[in-house]
Amino acid sequence: MTDLRVTVGDRDFEATWSDDAPETRAALEATLPVGGDAVRWGDELYFDCSLDAPPENAREVVPEGAIAYWPAGSKLCLFWGPTPASQNGAPRAAAPVTVVARLEDATPLSNLEGGAAMRLERVE
């Protein structure tokens, strides 16, 4: 079941919530829709998004397609491949993040060039 629609530039994706971070999920759900001009860092996009949520099961290595919140920087991040912090090619954040959702298929992001506008919204 699809929970979220994620738009990156002109590309649309489906995502499902993670069960690992209920407080962060609730805080993000309360702010939807949310979006901004995302900055690119390797195969990661991030934009400003302030949520009232503590770190939950925070980690640096995340799965491909992870949508994560970085509490220390108040950013919402999308990972689909290696970043400058990666080791062995796995997506890796610069600091611990809380994974809240995951794209069903991040493959279309493989040829994304530069940053892009990014938006998350609830699927009705």
Description:
This protein is mainly beta. The chain has one domain (4-122): Cyclophilin (Beta Barrel), CATH 2.40.100.20. The protein has one helix spanning 22-31; strands at 4-8, 11-17, 34-40, 44-48, 59-61, 66-70, 75-79, 92-103, 116-122. The longest helix has 10 residues, at 22-31. The chain is globular and about 30 Å long. The mean pLDDT is 95.
Keywords:
45% strand, 9 strands, 124 residues, Cyclophilin, mainly beta, 1 helix, 8-stranded antiparallel beta barrel
Describe this structure in a few short sentences:
The chain has 124 residues and is mainly beta.
How many DSSP E strands? 9
Determine Rg (CA atoms, Å).
Answer: 13 Å
CATH class: Mainly Beta
The helix-strand sequence is EEHEEEEEEE
Name the average pLDDT. Answer: 95
The parts where pLDDT drops under 50 for at least 5 residues are none
Largest sheet: 8 strands, antiparallel, barrel
Q: What is the CATH topology assignment?
A: Cyclophilin
- Quickly count the helices: 1
Roughly how many Å apart are the termini? Answer: 11 Å
- Hey, roughly how much beta strand do the residues contain? over 45%
| Helix share bin | under 10%
The 3D shape can be described as globular
What does the secondary structure layout of this molecule look like, with pairings?
Layout: E1 4-8, E2 11-17, H1 22-31, E3 34-40, E4 44-48, E5 59-61, E6 66-70, E7 75-79, E8 92-103, E9 116-122
Antiparallel strand pairs: 1-2, 1-9, 2-8, 3-4, 3-9, 4-7, 5-8, 6-7, 6-8
